[in-house]
Amino acid sequence: MMALSFRTWLGFFGVAALAGSLSGCWWVVAGTAGAEAGYVATQDDRTAGQTFSDQWIHAKVKAELVGSSVKSRNLGIKVRKGVVTLKGVVDTEAEKERAVSLARGVQGVTKVVDKIFVAR
Known about the structure:
The chain contains three helices and five strands; from the N terminus they run αββαββαβ. The protein is an alpha+beta fold. The protein folds into two domains: about 5-40, no CATH class; about 50-120, Histidine-containing Protein, Chain: A (2-Layer Sandwich), CATH 3.30.1340.
């Protein structure tokens, strides 16, 4: 029997984890790379389509913010099942309102959670 290299094992379990995340399955990976105990890699309850949609919404919201007067480098964007969470600090109340308004205007957004603080 041929011994498999560390790189081969790492590639195998990387592909297994990726396949599990795409299909929403649970994968148990035990004892790789000399680990004493295994761990469980899980995927949230979103379908692959929902995950793709959330990524598209994230990119679109980011593009809208970058193209506006909002200093988006200070804002974090998270998207889960169409719900956009904006978190960070802006200079003015107008920037805050503009960021929330732009996010709400993106197709596929069902709700915007505003966790933006005004610095001044």
